[in-house]
Amino acid sequence: MNIKILSGNPNLYSTKRLVEAAKKRNHNVEIIDHAKCDIVIEKKNPCIYYKGHLVKDTDAVIPRIGASVTFYGTAVVRQFEMMRVFTTTESQALVRSRDKLRSLQVLSRAGLGLPKTVFTNYSRNTEDVIKHVGGAPLIIKLLEGTQGLGVVLAETNNAAESVLEAFNGLQARVIVQEFIKEAGGADIRAFVVDGQVVGAMKRQGKEGEFRSNLHRGGTATVIELTDEEENAAIKAARVMGLAVAGVDMLQSSRGPLILEVNSSPGLEGIEAATGKDIAKSIIRYIERSI
To answer: How far apart are CA 61 and CA 116, in angstroms?
Structure first.
């Protein structure tokens, strides 16, 4: 098959591993920077040009779209869909996953466990917002934040009020979430491919750090999911419409709580922690689907 990987950086671990896995299974693979594609829209003949050349004879694309180029990256994926090219991540699911508020609403409607979350339209009544999640300590997150950036732990009600007022003054949209103390600064990343968990790791924040992101110095170890955790991860990916997803969960006294469903999850941490060939799982999913 002819597979295109949509990636802005060919040197990223995830991109290189996908290339390697596709070649190992005797597929032709090419990396395309989606930000440099030209989309041509006309009646019954949608097409894409890349570096002046018509993109053709493509069987499948693997979108690796960074958050900063979601709008254009999604348009490129949608164009491939119009060209009847299979994609491991559908454009609509990509858009849905990048909207944190919408994602939480979708997950809540599906009956999945979530940390209690409040969103307001720059409300000046910060006391009520804090009260709705049970008071401090609490988590304040920028809606557009990634990799642990724009996430604040407010340990007192006064601190929470100050942070909320600062974000409101900057016209920055935030969500406020209850702090799950029993999680102990750790979360779980379950990697789902085609309705199956193909790898799972527990990420622990470094000493004194409540964020467990590996980009923030956290460590990862392989973990055996409980049936409840595995079912929650699979259901979360399904209701978000994602065939390939990284589902982040907290372990709590009331069961697994979904934090986020990532539509472009990195492979480095999960492959290192589990020793599993996750890239191969993605390529095999394409093979089954075409």
So the answer is: 36
